[in-house]
Amino acid sequence: MVWTDPVSQDIDALRGLSDFHEVPILAVHAPCLLITQRVWSSDPWTKLQRARAAAEKLGASTVVVHPPFRWQRQYARDFVSGIWRMAEETDVRFAVENMYPWRYRDREMLAYAPDWDVTKDDYRHFTVDLSHTATARTDTLAMVGRMGERLGHVHLADGRGSAKDEHLVPGRGDQPCAELLRGLRGSGFDGHVVVEVNTRRAMSAAEREADLAEALAFARHHLAQPGTVPAPAAAPGAREGDPAEAPARAGRVARVRRPGRGRGGRAGGAA
């Protein structure tokens, strides 16, 4: 994930870390968060161009991107067609990630455009994040079914339907993490499964490492089990000829956020 840590923005430093730890970088998450609005430019298209260039230089197959914030009006208007245009210029996949409504008490704000539910629009590839499905209180397997064969990337985490995006260790919330992983195994899915859990509550480096190890073991165990995929369903507006069937090939990812700094945060792991 490219964010405020200078190392995450430095391609040469990332390549050096990848070589040193012998862990390939298989995906680049573009700087789409509120706190990264000025990372790699304030222009959102420039951010995506730099993310694609980083992926190409690092040998990553995927750029993960969030839908625009609603106040990014011009970017939001051009987003669907712009992502298609960029996807057609490279072999790197632009996998658009599902988000969620923002909630405060009994109020709900639709912060993303065209929509937080990315299956309502036509994209070549999707990322599904199971913490985000929990926060959105949506049917995860139904969403994966709508993504179909265009599911290109999985952020494995868990949640309990809180208004907060929790990113729990899989198995500690109410999301169908095991069912999804088992269904991916025989579906022909050729993307990556990435553990994306929040370790801020860990009281020590050892506890943080144990949480990550538990998440990784969960992913490996269930990816090895047989299962079935959700029934295929075409996304609204899908282009003619696009496949629509639910999808993991396990992959290893370099962890950019170093757990020894402070009390930690969200971290990636190898599946």
From TrEMBL:
GO terms assigned for molecular function: isomerase activity
The keyword Isomerase belongs to this UniProt entry's keyword annotation: yes
Enumerate composition-biased segments (Low complexity).
Answer: 230-251
Is Membrane given among the entry's keywords? no
In what ranges is there compositional bias, type Basic residues? 252-264
Swiss-Prot/TrEMBL keywords: Isomerase
Q: Which PANTHER family match?
A: HYDROXYPYRUVATE ISOMERASE (PTHR12110), PTHR12110:SF47
What is the protein name given in its UniProt record?
A: Sugar phosphate isomerase/epimerase
